[in-house]
Structure formats: C-alpha cells, structure tokens
Amino acid sequence: MTDPILDVRGISKSFGALKASNDVSLDLRDGEIHALIGPNGAGKSTLIQQIAGGLRPDEGTIWFDGTDITAESTVERARRGLGRTFQISSLAMEYSVLQNVMLGALGRRGGAFRFFSPVMKDKALLDEAHDALAQVGLEDFASSITAELSHGQRRQLEVAVALTLSPRVFLMDEPMAGLGTEGSHRLMNFLGTLRQRAPILLVEHDMDAVFYLADRISVLVYGKVIATGTADEIRANKDVRTAYLGEEEDA
Amino acid sequence: MRRETVLNVAVLLGLLVVPLWAWVNDAPFIITLATKVVILAIAGIGLNLALGLGGLVSLGHAAFFGVGGYAMGILASHAQSYTPLMEWPLLIEGTKSMPVIWLLAAVTGALAALVIGALSLRTTGVYFIMITLAFGQMFYYFAISWPAYGGEDGLPIYVRNGFPGLDTLDPIQYFALCFGVMCLVLLFVARLAASAFGLALSGARQNAERVQAVGLVPYRLYLVAFTLSGAITGLSGALYADLNRFVSPTMFSWQMSGEIMIFVILGGVGRLFGPVVGATLFIVLEHLLGGISEFWHIYLGALLLIVVLFARGGLIGLLAGREVAHD
Questions:
Q1: A94 contacts in B (CB within 8 Å)?
Q2: I want to staple B241 with a disulfide (CB 3.0 to 4.6 A). Which of A194, A251, B69, B183 is the partner?
C-alpha cells in the first residue's frame, strides 16, 4: 500500500474544558474519498481548520506527503497543494464569478506581483478559470456578481476555485450543503471522478452522498474518531449505530 | 462607453477648461485654485490605492504628504543657500530641478510608507487607524522640533523650482505640469487596479481568508500597496510645497490626513476618479462657503454625513451607479 499523502497523527485541541479534538488520527491515500461524518458539535470543523492551518493543534502532528506541516501557515499549506473549500462560502463577494476563479488560477501560478498587464486578458489564466467553471457547471454565470449567486451556486464556485489550484489534496467542508437534488447529484458524480486527480477529505451531512461516494468513512463523536472503515463496515458498526446513525433514525 | 468613463472624461475636461478660461480672462487666482485641486487629488489618489483597493484605512497619510514636501524643501533650501546636504562620505548637493525632486519625494514617501506599513499592517481595524495616526503625529512633532529646516515656522522657498523647458512661475504652465502628473498617476493606478496585483489586493480586502486559501499572503499585498500609496502621496507633497513655495509642519498634521481621506470618501472610495471629484468639491466648497463664514467646516461635515449615510459610493457612485466588475 502507498504511503498516505495526508496523515493526521494523534491531534488534540481543547477550548477550555471542551476537548474539540481528542487524539484524532486519520489519513488520506491517493485515489480515495475519505469522508468525515459526525453529529453536530462533534468537532469536524475544528479538525478541518487544524488540517488547513487556521488552528494549531495542542498536541499531535500533521504530515503532508512525508513532511511535517504542523507548524506551517495556511498559505504555506495551500502552496503545498491543499485545496480547501469552506463550510460557509468564503468568496470575494463584490467580484464576478470569473474573477473569483481567476484569483485561484493566480494563486496556482504562485504570485500576484505583476503590476501592469491586465489580468482579465491573460489567456492562460482565463482558460484555466473557464475550464474550472465548466467542470462545476457554472460556465453560464461567469459574469454574475458573486453576492447575487444562490447558496448552492456559491458552493459550486468554492469547488471551482479549489479546482484552479490543481491541488494534491482536496479538503471539502460540506460542498453539497444548500444544493438542490439535481445540483447535488451532479456534484456527487463529479466528485466521484475527481478522486482520480487528487484524493478528497470530505466533510458532508448528506448521508446518501457519503455512503455512495466514500471509499472510507471516519466517524467523529465528541472529538474522538470512534470508527474508520468502508461504508459497509460503518453501517454494521454497533458503536456508530448507537452514537450517530441511531440518533438520526430516532429523530 | 460606461457611464463612469463618460463622467471621468467630463471631470478631466472640466478641470482643463476652467483654468484655461481663467488664463484667457487673466484670473490667476482661479488657476492657482485649480492647481491646488489637482495636487490634492494626487494625494487622494495615493490614499485611494491603499483605502479603496486594499481596504487600509490610513489616518496617517499626511506623513507621506509632509515627507514629500520636506524632500522638496530640504533639497531646494540647500540649493538656494549653496550649501551641500552632506559632504561625507559622498558629496550631495541641493537641487532646484523638479524631476529630481519628484523622484526623491516619491522614493522617500515610499520608504516612509514601507517602514510604517511593515509595522502597522500587523494590526487591523481600529488599531491600524490609531497606529497610522500615531506615526503621522510622530512626524509632525519631529518637524516642529527640528530647527535646521525652520521648525515650527516652516521653510520658505523663494523661487519655485524649475522644470526643463517651462516657466514654472507662470501659473498656467505650473498647472499644466501638475495636470500632466495627475494624468500619469491616474493611468498608473488604473493599470495597477486591472493587473494581477490589483485582483489579488482587492480580493484580500473583500476576503483575506479566501486569498490565503489560494496561497497568497495578504500582508505582502497590503505592504506593496501601502508603499506605492506613500510614493504617490509623497509626490503630491512635493508639488504642493512648490505651489506654496513654503513647507511647514502643518503638512504633517492629522487634519491633513483627515482632509485627504475626505477627498476619497466624498468622491467615492475605490473609484479611480473619486479623489479627483472629492478634491474638486472640497476646494470649491472651501472657496465658496469660506467666503461666507469661517465656520464652513460645519457644512462640509453635514455633506460628509449625507454622503456616508446615503451615498456610499460617493459622488461618483451617485452619478455613475454601482461599480461593475471589469472583465
């Protein structure tokens, strides 16, 4: 088996008395979708933030492609190839859809210190940007102002920006939230093919999507990973049923 | 053509026609007023680069304005007294040549902004405003207590500096020179705004988290913008000092920083011609209302309130509508 490209080892993070992450370990291997599920407040977002670089863990290490990145900043991790989409869309709202994607393409090129040539006429960047928009199905909205997009469209745009980065790893925080049935199916199929290009660590609430897409699933409850395994193993796991899936059936 | 472009062209033409009319009718005071508008507009264009594109609310831009002014004052005063600035390790003499003075004013303005920015940009929001204000005040008190160049009394320069081929003491010729500089600065900033740097900078203003996630460092973008902004405002300081043939610590005062910011807000934050329209309105009001009452700032304050409350895009936003994405 190949070494995991992303390897989280024994991470802990506390906020006062609350243990948001409690000795969490998980890894991501080439070609897979690894889904992270768990009830609200289980610490999924805290974990994602620690992997992306927004929060520093109290204990434990994070390895990316054989390098310890625990102490690196968000920017350094992004440059290594960690492509992130945000749970709450984080976009430049005054910009057009195209400009947002251009920003991603600019980031991949590795620098914005070009002062005189008009960026919106840069053929190479434009091609990348339009290509990314077409892949998520936003090509008709290229000139729309981002603030005027629907919730679901913003999620698609998040994914498109991540695509322009051509990352080594995708870190997706609920990319399907707010999408309609059709959009959700479309994105689901797309993510299914995307794993060939780069593995995806997927946080998602849509259980149909998770069980359909994920090669492996980790279940996080109260900051602890209580189980990791294939969809079938997770379905059959007793702890998971009581702690998580059971709760949902009751509700 | 976009409405804003039409408006911009009209503003430029208006700024040309009025002094030309004054020249024909022999009214040099109006020409001087127009020159003042153009020079202050350049200071505002400088601030607008930091404030409008980068979202950096600097209340210390008088520091760069004053540094540019003193760059001119110091160079010219040494030239008029025939004493070198320094003799060791290398001989540096004063100069009365505008191109050289402009270059040095822009460079010192940029250096001051680089140092102030490097320290201030570690903070955000109110802290950033307060720190830039504090730096401005430091420059102000330093200028007041530095007797070598006039201290509190300021530093008069008896003859306006020269520009090859022009008689700079002729009001219309000096106006034309300043107008030309303003057009070049506008062109520079327009190119900058449409460049990769402009896209990233304005993106960082809207959402720093997003810019970081694509692997760009907001701090560096801000610092470069702040430095360029200081260079432009420094250049305008040298022009302003030459207009008055006088440099004084008031160029460093926080009221000056406030005025530069008022130009930007009145005209339209982040709009290319915002500071030009804002400075024009400010000087016209100062001239008209100042003649009626010395408390004309009350009316200015009321106007500023109205703009901030009801016309966020400033005068340009009011006349040309919302900014459209430029692609």
A1: 202, 206, 323, 325
A2: B69
